[in-house]
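Quick entry, no commentary yet.
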Amino acid sequence: MKKKLPKEAYGGVSGKDYVPYITDKSNKGGNVAILIIGIVLSTIFAASTAYSGMKSGLTVAAGIPGAIIGSMLVGVFAREKGILGKNILQGMSSGGESIASGMIYVLPAIILIGSQITFFEGLLVGVGGVLFGVGCSSLVYNYLIVEEHGKLMYPESMAISETLVASDGGGDAIKYMGIGFGISGIINVLTGSFLNVVNNTMTFVGSKFYKWKFSTEVNPLLLGIGFIVGLEVSLTMFAGSILSNFGIAPLIGYFTDMAGSNAAVWNDASMSISQMDVNAISGSYVKYIGAGMMLCGGIIGALKLIPTIIISIKETLNAKSNNDGSAESSSGEMLILLGGVVIGFVAAFLISGSITMAIVGAIVSLILALLFVIVAGRLTGTIGTSNLPVSGMTIASLVILTLVFVVMGWKTPEDNKSLLLFAAFMVVAISIAGGYTQSQKVTYIIGGSKREMQNYFTIAGIVGVVVVTGTILLLSGQLAITGSDAPFALPQANLMSTLTSGIMSGNLPWVMIIVGVFMALVLFFLNLPIMTIAIGFYLPISTTSIILVGALIRVFVEKMSKNDSEKEARVANGISLSSGLVAGGSIIGLIGIILQVSGIVKPNTPSGFAASNMMAFVILILLVIATTLPIISTKVRQNEK
């Protein structure tokens, strides 16, 4: 058996002539055990991604962690399925994660506008989006996967493929994921998300002369995200928070102190402007500047996609029939696509206030979703799903659909809810397209069945819809809490709710929005990452600061390595440990909330030293040490040097 991918996996031959790692097409990767394990993994990654994404505004791709965990579980429960079974499991893991990475942008926005969402509504638009996204992506499979082989590199697909082939090294990865899960679990049990016996947040506020705020939430989940995304992204986000908390908020605070006693806050007539503290300033003014930055960043990102859109449509229309000779016909994918369209129209009639709204909303949503599904598939081949600008494409789609609603005169709160449900259909289709295309590229490289991946991935996507919708409903009480100390930051969902309700009602602090737009334009002219800075500007500094700590640990690990082999091994194990931190923080945190809601666990209120900033600092030091020591102690095997 070959021990590495063929060099042609990276190009050098035409797609139709590529010989995959596994050449026996009669072998299949799926069975009942694989299906059950895949459903469990898709559930775990959907729930953990939803929780962590709503907490931090960032999500972590599940392909590589899914490949690592899948390799271990296949070895235990389905050894005869080998690498093909492992491939199915990484795809199903990505399916659950992809759903969460999209739905958390929109469904919580319905709660933020003061409305309610039912499980059936979320299920209907979500399943419709899954089927439509998978169906559309399958129709352009031949172009994106086969004809563009070696041109679209699919970097994350290749990393997953290499992980699967080298799955005999998965033991160390599993060990480090377990360590991370344990560290995160212990801290989450002790802090607010579970028992709340100790304080894990350091906060310092300047209330006179210079109104500023610095805070750090000692959260293993966020620290793990920082290690995974690295210093550049973490530092850029933190720079946005510094600008927000030490630049804009104090500047506005300087002028609020000069306001007369009769001047009231624009969205709270009971509060005098001169009485505003830094939290009120951030909630009523600064966050709208951040919304303007994200809006402008999303539009600029969408405009940058125009050449890609044109190329994608042109090449797709010119591509040959997507039957690549493998005897896997397109009838299944056509049925999936048709199912997505039918469910989309059924959902439209159930969520709309009129037949006209249902027809117009469904047609516009389907056209926009189709457009951006193709773009998402192509961009995944260039930058991978981790960097896929789902939020930018969603913002562009949502603004277009909102303007259609305004033109048609649909401006009530009920219409706003319908609008956001249409947007949920679009964002699910867009996000699932990236994960699905990535998984199909892995299947093509390894030599699995395209049809088998399609079916198992679709099942995982539907499971993801059920899990994410249920998670959002379970957390709805906490998601409705807004302000600087809200338990969930929800930066994207806050932006969606602000845009739609503001455009429909005409009640927005447009000066703040416009200032944010021009700040984003300055960043664009300086060739700086607008959306990353804007998200940092919008997120609490307590979130971005601990993410930066995680990135600094990675820098320390790299600097302490003696050579490239040692650095590569340590970073790989660090990423595995960090994936465990994210999974542990998400799952244990979610379990804690379930136990609190059910009344089984009654959280305490810390007092004395346990409630102090010093307590949080002690936890931070312990977390940094517990995270760093296992990574630094990594031993490099002789055959890895």
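second:
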Amino acid sequence: MRLPLRSTVSELIAGSVVAAVISLALQFAVARLGISEPSFAPEALASLGAALVLLITFGLLAFGRRRFPRPVRLAGTWAALSTFTTLALAIPLQATRYYFGGSSTDNGFRLQYMTRMASSWGLSDMNYAGTAPYYPGGWFWLGGRFANLLGWEGWAAYKPYALIWVAVTSVVAFTLWSVVVRRRLALLAAVVTSLAGMLHGIEEPYAWPSAAWLAPIAVLTWHAMRREQRAPRWTLICIGGYVGFAAITYTLHFGFAVLLIVAMAVVAGTSRVRRGEAVWATVKRMFLRLLPIGIVSGLISLLVWAPYVLATHVFTDNPRSAALHYLPEDGSFLPVPMTDASVFGALCLAGFAWLILRAKRSEVAGAMLTLVIAIYVWFGLSTLALVAKTTLLAFRLNVILGVVLAVAGVFAVLEFIGWLRERVDVGYAARITTLSCALGLLGAVTLTQGAIGTALATSTEQAYEDYYPTGDNAKGARDPDKTGSWADDVYREISDLTGRPPERDLLLSTDYKLMSFRPYWGFQQETPHYANPLADYDERAAEIERWSKARNAPELVNMLRRSEFTTPNVFVLRNPASPVASEADQERAADPSDENAGKLALNLKGDAFPQQPNVRDYDVHFDPVAFDGPQFERSDVGPYTIIAVRDAR
């Protein structure tokens, strides 16, 4: 290995700190641009800033790498990587407080988790009170501490925190690649990793680090398993540290990493047996190499997973989760990014060819090819899992596949350039180097602009369109026909009705975004796919439907008191009689033949897998008479009716 243990650890720590500080400083500077949207000015500035950083980086790679002391080169590399990613991503978001995707779809759950973690120092479920967390909260828990440090609410800290992690991921990727390849190759691998992330991966910032780092970890693992002598202990600990990190941040990558590592051990062991080594000696050797990885990753995993493991018989009676019940179009077909008619597709094609041609002679190529094969195997297993009415969310590995093939493409191009320089006149060598850097710079700029202008365009627009909890959005719009415009009034009314801080209120709400911005507890999660298996989603849905059958207030109060669940002290329901109700609600309210005309509505979702979309929406209707009693206090706000349970105050 090219980087010793002490240097690796010190560079991981120092590089991460430098990246975080530079990224945060640049973000505060970018936020002062004050460019009003809609405008292409932010995209232009982002493209120019990123291009300048790339120009300096490629120029120094080609002509200036020996002119500065090693510490200066190292610090400059960290600064360049963090500056590149931050400028490219922060400037398009300069006038919004949201990250890519705004508060819509899955971001609603991510903001809810950040808000929850910022309100408490302990691990807890994002939605259900008193329930051990099911979705790994390591990334979000640290995000909560970041929000506390800034004195911001969790949702508001999500964007700067996510951008910091993107910057840190690039720097850590550079250090990890430096362990297995030369520094120049490591820097180019880190740059192309960042570019691949901008195209496909950074919209899930908590999943991006484990995706970006898996390729160099796979090379380390391949080296450790194939090594004839005793495998270095620190290498195994490093691999275990990665697996543990994946376990506390993104479970899918944890499961895939375990499969990959075990598969590499099996392949390496099989090769030894075929060369004449005794079977049991080989098994023992591979087991002793896997053991430290398992111990280290297990200890790290327990930091986040211990509460859930203790709350259930996870190995014998684990509650069934709907989290895997999702099969989008890009998960239905095997991914072939190397066939895309684009610069990125050409790079992946070069990488694919290099892996095939060099796998037997290059340890790096062999490890990366094994990783690619493992991804396709996971796709196959995910398809077979449909027989059991589930999936393995294989499409989430497309990000890793893109990173691996793109990095391999860089290695392929550099090897071809080296081969070409050896076969031409010495006088042309410098010209080849100059041309190669120019073409590399052109490709990197093209990919950057493609990410900013195309791949992230829709998510950027969403970040400007979605409403803040203040009732307006980044463009200053406040449309009363949009439910988000009433958020501030709803929060204020809930506070007035209950007299409690948000973390002491338990809501049954038809608007689930309310819990993305305030640490309310929810009686029900928006979809079964994000619901904690320990919370009995289906049983709660059935309980809500039973409550909706109440004909008067005493009957509803009796139902609430006899419920097996902790009942909500606030109901937020749609009021079809409101002048700002949706058109569909107003039509229903005006239809005398509709048995639910005049009733208050609550939206629920059920699991519709394997259909697409994978959820079915349906409404549950409450007769307003059921809340007409001294136990309830009612207030109408915009399209909503808010009801507080008085005896719960």
